């Protein structure tokens, strides 16, 4: 059966999901489909009172179900049942995600949705394998480091990968024994609502997962500042992350995991396999039309191979074929909104007016939806916003270097340090450069995450605090208590 569908055929869940059931709500924010610009729904805004209702539902679910205190293996088994149901309902989830987001339906079932189920399973296995430690102390005492869940975790996910980002937040928090109140982006909420419904069908306690829809100003502020939220987890822009930190500081002190913006470099040395490198670089900026925090948006290449590499990349990006997200054959995504198209184009045109060379693209595509041409810019001023700002679109800049120290100097960004790529066949150089790069993740002779969920992700500098994925994400959802007993 083809995954292609008519957008009008999708039955969208309406309202919030609190206490194990849908709570109807009036739509307040108009929503347009990125693929064709059609106004198709309205997103409600959860009030301060409704956010509190969701937090209280999480607290009751923890108390009534004993989720945090029962045998840990029972949490593991329940989460595996949920993952099973996510896989069984993959096509429904794919349609709900594709209709409102930038993710093509053909990339969802075996991509984002399969990854989400894998993440749930990965974290489920930590529940009965990570715990307290007996530590060495004086012979007359017994020292222990005990861990326990925070209670109710507040989470906010972005619009670019709605389901897999929800998996980042829900998997470790639930496995660690917490309840969650999650606010998805107001632009792409529907697949997350259905994901929560599936959790109850899978047997997770009603109220353990609560989904509140709304914007950052009202709903996000109420959630992150709620006094009974024990921990905050957020993925999004650096500006929004700073606002969340300020809001938390105004209302109390609590731990946070923040995965924020990036302006990630890809360093290509003269000995790199140029064919392999061109594919990795092109894919990094074409994937989701560059709308990823780890997008490899800055190509920094040895001048001796720059022309050959750029030519190879130009061939690959010329093959990008845009199409609606509900067409199973679509490979190149739309941009999320007209406002984002305008922002991307403003940065590109500013660079061009300042003398930047346009190798490809340079403007929106002529289409009903929000599509921007894959764009490659060179000969940029060091202060150009195209080099300094996170564009969050399909724009790749090119800079050249003569020696390794110059490459590292170009790679270093004053604000961001989320990810970086290195392409070389010299193992010593790869290790040396990797150590020198100020980035939370470095990929060598590849660019982009794998499905090895054991590898944590997070940034340096203003690209974030703490880690998602990996053992670190599970541990970040439990607090520790030191115990010393005289015997």
Descriptive notes:
The chain is an alpha/beta fold and 487 residues long. It has 2 domains: 7-260 and 464-486, Aldehyde Dehydrogenase, Chain A, domain 1; 265-452, 3-Layer(aba) Sandwich (Aldehyde Dehydrogenase, Chain A, domain 2), CATH 3.40.309. It has 15 helices and 22 strands. The chain has helices spanning 48-65, 72-88, 90-100, 108-124, 162-175, 190-201, 216-224, 238-251, 274-286, 306-318, 338-353, 385-388, 404-411, 427-436, 470-475, and strands at 16-18, 21-23, 29-32, 39-43, 133-135, 141-149, 152-156, 179-183, 209-211, 231-235, 256-259, 265-268, 298-302, 357-360, 375-378, 395-401, 416-417, 419-423, 441-444, 460-461, 464-465, 478-486. A 7-stranded mixed beta sheet has the order 14-15-16-13-12-18-19, with helices on both faces. Strands 9-8-7-10-11-21 form a 6-stranded mixed beta sheet, with helices on both faces. Strands 5-6-22 form a 3-stranded antiparallel beta sheet, with no helix packed on it. A hairpin with a 5-residue loop joins strand 5 and strand 6 (141-149). It is globular. The termini are far apart. The mean pLDDT is 97.
């Amino acid at each position: 059966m083809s995954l292609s569908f008519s957008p009008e055929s999708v039955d969208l869940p309406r309202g919030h999901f609190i206490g194990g059931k849908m709570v109807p709500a009036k739509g307040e924010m108009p929503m347009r489909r990125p693929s064709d610009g059609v106004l198709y729904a309205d997103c409600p805004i959860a009030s301060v009172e409704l956010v509190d209702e969701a937090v209280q539902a999480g607290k009751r679910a923890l108390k009534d179900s004993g989720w945090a205190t029962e045998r840990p293996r029972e949490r593991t088994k329940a989460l595996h049942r949920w993952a099973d149901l996510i896989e069984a309902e993959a096509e429904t989830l794919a349609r709900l995600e594709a209709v409102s987001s930038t993710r093509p339906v053909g990339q969802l079932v075996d991509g984002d949705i399969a990854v989400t189920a894998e993440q749930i399973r990965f974290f489920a296995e930590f529940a009965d394998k990570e715990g307290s430690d007996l530590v060495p102390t004086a012979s007359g005492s017994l020292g222990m480091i005990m861990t326990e869940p925070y209670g109710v975790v507040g989470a906010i996910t972005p619009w670019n990968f709605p389901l897999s980002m929800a998996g980042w937040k829900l998997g470790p928090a639930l496995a660690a024994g917490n309840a969650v109140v999650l606010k998805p982006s107001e632009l792409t909420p529907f697949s997350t609502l259905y994901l929560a419904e599936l959790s109850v069908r899978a047997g997770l306690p009603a109220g353990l997962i609560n989904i509140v829809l709304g914007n950052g100003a009202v709903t996000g502020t109420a959630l992150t500042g709620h006094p009974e939220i024990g921990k905050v987890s957020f993925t999004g822009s650096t500006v929004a992350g700073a606002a969340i930190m300020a809001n938390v500081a105004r209302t109390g002190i609590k731990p946070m995991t923040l995965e924020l913006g990036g302006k990630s470099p890809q360093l290509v040395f003269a000995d790199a396999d140029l064919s392999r490198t061109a594919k990795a670089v092109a894919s990094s900026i074409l994937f989701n039309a560059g709308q990823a925090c780890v997008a490899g948006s800055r190509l920094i290449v040895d001048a001796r191979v720059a022309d050959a590499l750029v030519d190879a990349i130009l061939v690959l990006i010329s093959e990008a074929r845009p199409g609606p997200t509900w067409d199973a054959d679509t490979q190149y995504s739309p941009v999320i909104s007209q406002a984002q198209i305008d922002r991307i184009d403003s940065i590109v045109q500013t660079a061009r007016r300042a003398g930047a060379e346009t190798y490809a693209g340079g403007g929106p595509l002529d289409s009903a939806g929000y599509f921007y041409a894959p764009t490659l810019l060179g000969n940029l001023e060091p202060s150009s916003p195209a080099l300094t700002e996170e564009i969050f679109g399909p724009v790749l800049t090119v800079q050249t270097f003569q020696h390794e120290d110059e490459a590292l100097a170009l790679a270093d960004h004053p604000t961001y340090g989320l990810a970086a790529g290195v392409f070389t066949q010299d193992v010593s150089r790869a290790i040396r450069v990797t150590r020198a790069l100020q980035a939370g993740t470095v990929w060598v002779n590849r660019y982009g995450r794998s499905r090895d969920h054991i590898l944590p992700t997070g940034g340096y500098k203003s690209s974030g605090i703490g880690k998602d994925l990996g053992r670190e994400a599970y541990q970040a959802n439990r607090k520790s208590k030191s115990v010393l007993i005289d015997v």
